[in-house]
Amino acid sequence: MLDSARDRVFWGIGILVVIFYALIPVLWIASLSVKPSDKLSDGKFFSGSPTFENYETIFNDDTFIAALVNSIGIAMIATLISIGLAAMAAYALARLDFAGKTVILSGALAVAMFPPISIVGSLFDMWRSIGLYDTWAGLIIPYMTFTLPLAIYTLSAFFREIPWELEQAAQVDGATPFQAFRKVIVPLAAPGVFTASILVFIFAWNDFIFANTLTSTDNARTVPAALAFFTGGSQFEQPIGAISAAAVVVTVPIIVMVLIFQRRIVAGLTAGAVKG
Amino acid sequence: MAKITFDGVTKRYPDGFEAVKDMSLEVEDGEFMILVGPSGCGKSTALRMVAGLEDISDGELRIGDEVVNQKAPRDRDIAMVFQNYALYPHMTVRDNMGFALKLHGVDKGEINTRVEDAAKILDLTEHLDRKPANLSGGQRQRVAMGRAIVRDPSAYLMDEPLSNLDAKLRVQMRTEVSRIQNSTDTTTIYVTHDQTEAMTLGDRVAVMRAGVLQQVDTPMELYNRPKNLFVAGFIGSPAMNFMPATVEGDTVKLPMVDVRLPDDLRERVGAGGEGGSRELIAGIRPENFDDAALLGDDVQGRGATFRTKIDLTESMGSEIYAHFSVTSDKRIESDELRELAEDSGAGEVPGGGNEGHIVARLAAESQVKKGDEAEIFIDASHIQLFDPSDGSSLTA
Fold first, then answer.
1. Alpha carbons within 13 A on the beta-carbon side of B275
2. Which residues of B touch A179 (CB under 8 A)?
3. Looking at this predicted complex, what is its ipTM?
4. Chain B residue closest in CA terms to A164
């Protein structure tokens, strides 16, 4: 693709512009988070003498710690359940021909089309009456519901790419359908599973609407919602430094995760399965 | 070790299409049985029903004495080699070959010994720790074979295992397959559309067409006494030449010459011969022609000679293929021949139309040249005659 020097320059500049444009806000937050409180509004990127006092503040704050634990726990459990269910559904959709297959697929798509804001009101009422309000389950359930369609679609696309004969070979080799799935299909679908997991995890991690509406205390409030409740030490103090530090703290896991999983999404894992 | 029995086995798809129709076949213990036929004839479906990968709509399939219609593939104790190998890409060669044993709970030491033994046979020892992606086509094929061998199953099923290899490797692997089957003496069903594989590998060959078993016999029987037009045209390369013929008394009138039938042939054609004549299809294999100039008079007494203009010659070194045309005022109409022609990609029914195209195999010493007028001999004792109404052989 990068065959001529002109192309190279064109793409190089393009990529730089996009990186700059995308990273500036992140860098700005990072820079704010290490500024001492008196230099917060000096308008400079680097104002010298970086300090970690904002980080100390938030990590000494029980509310933030609780929110962080809630965020990690809820996002991980939602991801696990969602991917587990989606993997089974996608496998069936990719492999079997059964009545109502298209109905299920379009149903899944319809679920994904609902704007979350349109159901939070009724969820709020329902959760309060059945006791799910302000609990982990109360957030895990909607996250799971909203990420399942995406996960099913992503995974069934990956499953369809895996040669059908591998599974038959496993069955002839003596595997039960479940063993064939676990020992042959799952390892081959791993890149797809990681991709889907990242997407689901990020959705759950980033969500604000559900977290803000369906929680009220440190019991289940996640970081995005908790940030909105940050206040300074006094009513005259802006909690911008602390908010920035918290924002960095919630961004870092996502970046780390993407970097780790990126290495797992290895193209060509299936190369050599069949003649090629 | 087991005998495999098809008893009226039928595969019917939900849309009513029957891929395999009422198939009855017995594969003896230790026998190497070939299923051969053009693409879409149901041979792979039949194999996959033995493996348990396709449901059986009707009839009974037995492995040993056990009816296995409802058994899962894993309970049938069979090993299968797939056309595109179906190696597990995330496992090393060693794990690929040992996978089945591992699933059956064989202990690690035992698995290792058996895998290494098989690797030795297949010349894969130095590749045991590589992944399939890093192997050549021939090596992958051998791993697929190895996966079957290590299990020591009651039967091997092979679905066109050599079709993805290049010509040279295919010949090499063909002998390999034959050697392995001989040494393990395990019942084997081998599906192929390559008639060379069918002729060279099998103890017996089952020819299929459109889901129906046409003939099951040893390769030589199939070649010399095909039961119908389809088998006659499918087995043999270059294919048998077909032409319209009329039998009158003891002579058969071919488009190029009248030939006197030997007594035994005439008796078998028999019916319809009562002074009247009968329209038939004659089949003559290329090697039953020869260059009359090379033959003594005594040989020529067994057949007839005719003169024709040679359109083309192909010298193979050991022999020469001479192509020439014959014209006839009759046409051959046969579904079986049409299907054969479609399968070979010729698109044209051999001997259809008023002009027929004949291939003769002549001895290498023949001086026949393209464009020459040559005298060609037909060996009457090897003429095959078929009933045009149903394609059945009158001479088999």
1. 0
2. 103
3. 0.78
4. B86
